[in-house]
């Protein structure tokens, strides 16, 4: 029989079709008016963490609060105060953009107000100075030490200026130039430009002194418009003509200080982000999410927008959560269905095609952020200056059905991390992912609460709970003494002492250890179906917070632990095989395996095993988890019991994450995809056992005999992978 190695799963992304569409840069919730109550308008006052001297007023509460702003208080403003702040927006942005204060442009439909702040209060003095034509102070009225703290404007041309230095009549010109420009050489490394500037400024100083050599004067720099300050400068050539020499009477104090003018550049970036996350706030209000902003933001953020904080890991977590919910739901609803029918029903409700339809039904594409408006294109609210050629409120989004399906799962994960398992299940119910009768949902939800499920904490990773370089036996202790399979099947209550849980319904315990070979008896298959999903959740939920792991790493942890080899050896280690109720044939298979089982493998090297355990050993481990869930009526209980059993393997994988990789056959497949080579494995039965041969571009590379076909393929793939990676390393060494 020929078996072609599975294609690289990442290739699926290349064949997905994408929908491209425009959405507004802010959600409808940010267009709501300020609410009038008792003759005053309600506003929600926030401060920025990274911008100390500006705040922002919203008509609605940003809840959950984004991590870059801080709620200050709910305030009430008179109509005159609100109108002043609206007018201030236009004046301030005209000044910051350095455009004429004429109202001939479009108004944004967004509704929020940027305000100068002083000690967590609106700085009304600066607002009044901006709006009313009062006589402004000149720089002469400011002490020399305080002058760098202000921004200025020239009296004649209304240029905006940054203070550089006050020149006294008796100061030497060369000393002045050295003080101004020496630091510029170190910082900018632009010797030619600095030389040009020195020559020009020297000429300006000399001219000023020739005209009036007995008064102090000011060297100032022209302040750039904030949008120009944000743009990336591609040329290193700068005009030296950005300095001015002015008398003290020619410089008036601007209503924004130097820190505020500098912060205004970052302010546009913050406003762009706020408009973008308004979709997250709108989603939270729609689905009553009250958990951490970070989890919901990540759940609604595509990797194309943020490579570090996105839905990637949450999607993996949401996948196993949905699997648990669906498993329990169908387990209770279809009491007569066998395991394979339950698996089919579950698969139909958790596959990507179905989940993408759920996302479309709820218009999730309006909330998934794949791109964000560039801040230099932002048109702030209440700014009515001439329309800029780059200004827009439209953001081009690009999304696929696969991303929509991932989004559903990531949001399930976000609700789990932010609020708990019960609320995550209620979110699934709200989406109508499992459209069943109310009584079925009531049964399903009773197993969940919002309490902590995990047993790992970050301190355990660095503790001495496990030695630094443990053997497989340190992680999963080997059986101390071999016993016949099933020798204790009449007394499964002894399992309770092993796992530390007392069953209320002993029949569930018997069912969990009854093999399908026992005709006319209820066997463990249905409980095993349930337990399979539970163990996946226990592994992923515990490892999720132990590091900044991506979806691929979490999947690897899950596959390494929740697979036939490791779970079977846990069943052997705990002595669970002694309680297996099966026929003589199955018992002999288990006994034979116990005679040959090895205990010296590297658990991190996924798939590189020397054993292929009988599946029944894995099954009773999973079935026991399902039995505890049904008996206790609590996901938290089964998570604590099996989390403790799986603690050491999970700690070891988290510590050695860089050594963990996908299944060896998957790694060989990825090599083939990258090297553009066709890889297949041919398998056959021989007198010496099962034979597997790896072919690369139809050339046989290596063969391996083993007792089962699966094990032969795994070992052959391992040998082939070692050969090709060694050849690759040799080629790289030669090329260097």
Automatic annotation (TrEMBL):
Q: One MF term from GO for this chain?
A: ribonuclease III activity
Q: Which UniProt keywords apply?
A: Hydrolase
Report the InterPro entries cross-referenced here.
Answer: RNase_III_dom, RNase_III_sf
Using the record's annotation, list all stretches that form the RNase III domain: 270-420, 492-633
Q: Which GO terms describe its biological process?
A: RNA processing
Q: Which domain of life is it from?
A: Eukaryota
Q: What is the name of this protein?
A: RNase III domain-containing protein
Native species of this protein? Blepharisma stoltei
